[in-house]
Amino acid sequence: MIGAVPTVLLFIVLVLAYQFLVQGPLTATLSERRARTDGALENAQQAIARAEAKAAEYAAQLRQARAEVFKIREQRVKQWTAERDAAVETARKAAASKVSQAKAALEAEAAAARKSIQASAGELAAQVVRTVLPQTAGGYR
Question: Quick check: 135 and 141 in contact, CB under 8 A?
């Protein structure tokens, strides 16, 4: 058993050397690697969260811009409708004015024609009588 003592001592020295030279640095390196990986994952999750927040902000801004565009479009449509209605009303008034002028002119012409007919009615009646009834007594024939 005395021959085994140096082997046991050598084994203990090797185990201690392994602990200090290999396992300690290896454990430290693995811990650092795990910390870096966890940190990278955490940073990636934070970046994803920031990106999602920015996307939500951009979506809200886009909705707001679309609402403003819709509101402006609605205002323009109202303005165009008002302008069109005003133009239609102006045209309607102008047409009504022309119609009333034409009616007045037609009535004036009709009145003039009536006067002319009434003025010449007596003469026309006399001509009709002379043409239809021959003059027998006076002897123009």
Answer: yes
pLDDT per position as a tens digit, 48-69: 999 999 999 999 999 999 999 9
Distances (CA, A) of 32 to 37, 108, 111: 9, 112, 116
Q: What pLDDT does 137 receive?
A: 47
Distance set, CA 124 to CA 55, 93, 109, 131 (Å): 98, 44, 21, 10
Q: CA-to-CA distance for 122 and 130, rounded, in angstroms?
A: 12
> Rounded to whole angstroms, how far apart are CA atoms 9 and 20?
16
Report DSSP letters for 82-102, one per residue.
Answer: HHHHHHHHHHHHHHHHHHHHH
The closest alpha carbon to 29, from 21, 15, 42, 12, belongs to: 21
Question: What is the C-alpha to C-alpha distance for residues 113 and 119, in angstroms, rounded to an integer?
Answer: 10
pLDDT digits (tens, 9 = 90+) for 65-107: 999 999 999 999 999 999 999 999 999 999 999 999 999 999 9
Alpha helices in the chain (DSSP H): 4-18, 24-132
